[in-house]
Design goal:
Layout: H1 9-12, H2 23-39, H3 42-51, H4 55-62, H5 67-74, H6 81-89, H7 91-113, E1 119-124, H8 130-138, E2 143-149, H9 152-165, E3 171-175, E4 191-194, H10 203-214, E5 222-228, H11 235-242, H12 251-260, E6 263-270, E7 276-283
Parallel strand pairs: 1-2, 1-4, 2-3, 4-5
Antiparallel strand pairs: 5-7, 6-7
Helix pairs in contact: 2-11, 3-11, 4-5, 6-7, 7-8, 10-12
Bound molecules: S-adenosylmethionine.
S-adenosylmethionine binds near residues 127, 148 and 149.
Length: about 280
């Protein structure tokens, strides 16, 4: 089987069809939509979201930045008109769908590059596992995944998703804290996925998790994580209305934290909205 060179992760994703925002809509967002969302009184916006039954808002109020709001952003169809509007026009939901595509492709190619079978992928803060299911489907190799998450509900959903996608016999679920997982693994991971979690973790926690995980990885094996920039322009809205406190870091800032945990040789790939970078690092 031909193995693609590690040097060109950008080439791995060059054929992906991403969601973008046109220039006119960008100007409208920056000049009108974002200032209104950011500065219109939050209690009135919350009341309107409650009256229109926004599941996206309800899921964030219950569990800010939790797995369910990801699922609503990923879905092709949504029950509530208000969620259709938020997820179709909003910058973050579009960027999230781009990040899913980008991460799944990168992980699939990293699986393909691993020089032995079966390949083991460890997913930290996995939620129900949409990204790893996409990657397993796209990879050309035999691979299995261990999903780690605090949420039992995410895994109820995740087991149904795995059954639907035909990956149930290749996915294992560990409910628990990512900080404790290293001791519970029965074999080292070849690829570690940390997508959608670093933006909710302090610098100290990112370094602590990186250290624990790199301790059980073989030299040269890969970690995939993402940074988030405030290019979406709606951080004030997310904080005041959704109660979401995301930690924005540049790829270089996050790479510096991962380096303290034992990783290096970083390659960072942006999604076209400029909100997320998906970053590959190697255990030193
Ligand atoms: C934003 S969701 C991302 C889900 C998925 N990775 C994705 O990108 O679609 C973050 C997930 O991380 C989980 N999580 C947060 N902190 C955690 C921790 N310390 N240990 C395990 N899971 C954690 C949450 O329960 C949630 O399911």
């Amino acid at each position: 089987m031909a193995i693609e060179p590690l040097k060109s992760p950008h080439a791995w994703v060059s054929d992906l069809q991403f969601e973008k925002i046109g220039t006119l809509r960008k100007v409208l967002k920056a000049g009108v939509v974002n200032p209104v969302a950011n500065y219109f009184p939050a209690p009135i916006q919350k009341l309107a979201l409650r009256i229109f039954g926004s599941e996206l808002a309800l899921s964030n109020w219950k569990d800010p930045g939790g797995w369910r709001s990801m699922v609503i952003s990923y879905q092709d169809r949504r029950d509530r008109v208000v969620d259709k509007i938020l997820c179709t026009l909003g910058t973050i939901p579009k960027a999230l769908r781009n990040r899913r595509k980008l991460a799944a492709r990168v992980i699939a190619r990293l699986i393909d590059q691993t020089p032995h079978d079966p390949v083991h992928v460890l997913c930290l803060g996995a939620g129900p596992g949409h990204i790893i299911n996409d990657a397993l489907a796209e990879s050309r190799r035999q691979a299995h995944a261990t999903l780690v998450d605090l949420s039992a509900e995410a895994f109820d959903y995740g087991r149904r998703l795995a059954a639907e996608k035909g990956t149930a016999d290749r996915t294992q679920f560990i409910q628990g804290d990512v900080c404790d997982v290293a001791a519970r693994l029965d074999k080292p991971p070849d690829v570690v996925k940390m997508i959608g979690i670093c933006e909710y973790l302090s610098d100290e926690l990112v370094v602590q998790i990186a250290r624990c995980i790199s301790g059980v990885m073989r030299p040269g094996s890969a970690i995939v994580f993402n940074s988030i920039s405030d290019a979406h322009g709606t951080d004030r809205f997310f904080r005041r209305v959704f109660g979401l406190k995301m930690i924005h870091r540049s790829p270089a800032q996050l790479e510096a934290l991962m380096a303290q945990g034992g990783f290096g040789e970083f390659t960072s790939i942006p999604e076209p909205m400029g909100v997320y970078h998906v970053i590959i690092g190697r255990k030193g």
